[in-house]
Design brief:
Strand order of the largest sheet: 12-11-8-6-7-14-15-24
Bound molecules: ligand 6R9
Strand content: 15-25%
Oligomer: single chain
Structural class: alpha/beta
Number of strands: 31
Shape: globular
């Protein structure tokens, strides 16, 4: 088609992203692409024409500048924000090589700003105060409300004044344990306004996990809510917070103030457990404060927030982000990866308890003056059509979610999707894990009716914002590939010895040089920061992910390298095998782990969830193995298929492979802590189905 030719024509060069600029001019595509036509999905002319980055040539021009002159590139963007005082020289300084001294990253040091001011006051002052900042959709259909930028600013100021009044000062930690109600982003922004460091703990975490985080960051105050409904379940958050505070006090970290938002319709005051002298009802105090509040101007390198994430050891890591670089980076990545226009309505299904909710529910979108939908409930309540009913209700144009949700909705059937118009959608997004091509295609064809580009954004809590992501309209897409690096990001693929590999290859994904949104340390443990991320491959930031780059320069994330299986000397990404399995029409989800194998070193053990109503059978088992053999090779054929009615997942949807590895190796008495699972009973079901 002419459409196809036009794009191939414009797509004459491909970035290797290896940091060496000569690579940018290296790969001539044309023929190579034509031969793979089936794997390429081209944006329509109409889409590209209106896109912020309308062609691969434009991307390359901007990318080239961003890596050749990072200081100039990012300064130009940073100047569009409000700074009380401009940063000094140099614009950034970095040492990523622990052999040369302490690892250090700084951007815009000396620049004085405030991210809350830039999210709210700046947009109100620009005349956009009456635009909706947040639409809130409650758990139960029909419960909703909204806040304009001016109203949100007033709410934030009231809380900021209250927090100051009870003695919260610049640099103090504040723990937030709230569900997805307006008060969650309001609290984050209020902390930012007064220079306090927020530490949001996802409201699905247990009392023990919350206590552990309280003990690590020793907050001045914790903000929670008495109870919340999720689906048809009522969760008494305050009871969990109480238990956590008892635990932390026992360990020498008492919490003096617990501000509790009263969700009256779920649980009344009288029924809420209360500790006089410590607990305070939000509604009794906050509304009494003035609706304007002085901004605490902070240095670009002052801490903005802590967010705990799990590492390979038991103790969670407090990932610390600072203000200026994070602000510039989240705003810019949001704008380009979602081709953001002021007419868009944006909905990200992530909870603010995770990094996605920090960077792409709260900060990134608000910095752009966007209208954001936040959703309190569960995406399949009251039924599997809820997401699309919300899309229609608010005329959502950018919908950003996780592959696990895509797969589960895919399993429930197209009927739930096609029942709704979804006419407003123009861009789809995916994050959290590799999206397998079959889920990608369903998302693209069924949800987006083949007209919405998918931004498959690869990034991490540590990176602050998108690192490898499509820019919709700029490039043809390959289902399952996160495509190319974002501006200023220099990915490299290294072998076990840390030697960079060029061209088409696979290995460990590292990043060369810093970017403004990078985390600066692990709270209270800079040594662990260096050891975990900078020492494995000297001179680089090590992502912990495996990755391959194809002949066209596209990046394919293959999963955590702790999940790589080495079978007879062949390194196989668990995600590759899973992707093959789920391409079988009867398989809806799969999780693959390695287990010790006498002959091969490691064997492949696959947990497989079948489409509702399909019974497991010997024939199906053989068929699934054959599918993998056909798609990857005989060496990747699973040794064992374990029928799994469900998979053990964290509440953010990540499969807990640690548990699966134990089941696979028969170490049933060493399963460890299963309390953080969304549904711990899944584990018992799996054990019951062992050896069937
Ligand atoms: C944002 C977020 C980070 C890990 C990361 C990788 C996986 C995230 C991905 C992806 C493939 C994507 N991951 N996005 N893998 N494609 N688009 O999820 O942060 O919770 O810290 O997880 O998630 O393995 O290393 P976080």
């Amino acid at each position: 088609t002419t459409n196809h030719l036009r794009h191939v024509d414009s797509l004459t060069i491909s970035p290797s992203g290896a940091g060496n600029i000569s690579h940018l001019n290296a790969v001539i595509l044309g023929e190579a692409l034509a031969s793979e036509e089936d794997d390429l999905i081209f944006p329509s002319d109409e889409f590209s024409r209106q896109a912020l980055v309308p062609s691969s040539a434009k991307y390359l021009e901007m990318y080239k500048r961003s890596v050749e002159d990072p200081a100039g590139f990012w300064s130009d963007i940073a100047l569009r924000f409000h700074w009380k005082a401009k940063w000094g020289e140099p614009v950034y300084s970095e040492n990523l090589d622990a052999r040369k001294g302490t690892v250090k990253i700084e951007w815009f040091k000396g620049g004085i700003t405030n991210i809350c001011y830039n999210c709210l006051d700046r947009n109100v002052e620009a005349g956009n105060g009456s635009n909706v900042a947040l639409y809130w959709e409650g758990n139960d259909p029909g419960s909703d409300c909204s806040l304009t930028y001016s109203q949100l600013l007033e709410k934030v100021c009231q809380l900021a004044n209250y927090l100051k009044d009870i003695g919260v000062r610049r640099g103090d930690a504040v723990v937030i344990y709230l569900p997805m109600i307006m008060e969650l982003p309001i609290t984050m922004l209020a902390c930012a306004r007064i220079g306090a460091v927020h530490s949001v703990v996802f409201a699905g975490f247990s009392a023990d996990s919350l206590a552990q985080r309280i003990m690590d960051c020793k907050p001045k105050v914790i903000l929670t809510c008495n109870a919340v409904k999720r689906g048809s379940k009522v969760i008494c958050l305050k009871d969990i917070a109480d238990a956590a505070m008892v635990e932390s006090a026992k360990n020498g970290v008492p919490v003096d103030v617990c501000v509790t938002y009263g969700n009256q319709s779920v649980l009344n005051r009288e029924s809420t457990n209360w500790k006089e002298g410590r607990d305070i009802w939000w509604q009794d105090v906050v509304p009494k404060y003035p609706t304007t509040c002085h901004v605490e101007w902070v240095d670009a390198e002052d801490p903005l927030f802590l967010l705990y994430t799990s590492g390979s050891t038991g103790k969670p890591k407090g990932v610390l982000h600072t203000t200026g670089g994070y602000m510039v980076y989240t705003a810019t990545t949001f704008k380009y990866a979602f081709d953001y226009k002021s007419t868009d309505i944006y909905w990200c299904t992530a909870d603010c308890g995770w990094i996605t909710g920090h960077s792409y529910v709260t900060y990134g979108p608000l910095l752009n003056g966007a209208t954001v939908v936040i959703f309190e409930g569960a995406p399949n309540y009251p039924d599997s059509g809820r997401c699309w009913s919300i899309v229609d209700k608010y005329k959502v144009s950018i919908f950003y979610t996780a592959p696990t949700l895509v797969r589960s909705l895919m399993r429930d059937g197209n009927e739930f999707v096609t029942r709704y118009s979804r006419k407003s959608l123009r861009i789809l997004g995916s994050v959290g894990e590799p999206i397998n091509p079959s889920a990608w295609r369903w998302f693209f064809n069924v949800v987006g009716e083949s007209k919405c580009p998918i931004s498959d954004t690869w990034w991490q809590t540590e990176t602050g914002g998108f690192m490898i992501t499509p820019l919709p309209g700029a490039w043809p897409q390959k289902p399952g590939s996160a495509t190319f690096p974002f501006f200023g990001v220099q990915p490299v693929i290294v072998d076990e010895k840390g030697v960079e590999i060029e061209g088409e290859c696979s290995g460990y994904l590292c990043i060369k040089h810093s970017w403004p949104g990078a985390f600066r340390t692990l709270y209270g443990d800079h040594e662990r920061y260096e050891t975990t991320y900078f020492k494995p491959f000297a001179g680089y930031y090590f992502t912990g992910d495996g990755c391959s780059r194809d002949k066209d320069g596209y990046y394919w994330l293959t999963g955590r390298v702790d999940d790589v299986i080495n079978v007879s000397g062949h390194r196989i990404g668990t995600a590759e095998v899973e992707s093959a399995l789920v391409s079988h029409p009867h398989c809806v989800e799969a999780a693959v782990v390695g287990f010790e194998h006498e002959v091969k070193g490691q064997g492949i053990y696959a947990f497989v969830t079948l489409v509702e109503g399909v019974p497991p059978s010997e024939e199906l088992r053989k068929n699934l193995i054959l599918t993998v053999r056909n798609q990857i090779g005989a060496f990747a054929a699973p040794d064992k298929i374990h029928w799994a009615p469900g998979l053990p997942k964290t509440r953010s949807g990540k499969i807990m492979r640690r548990i699966l590895r134990k089941i696979a190796s028969g170490q049933l008495d060493e399963l460890g802590d299963t309390s953080t699972l969304a549904d711990p009973s899944v584990v018992d079901q799996l054990i019951a189905l062992s050896d069937c």
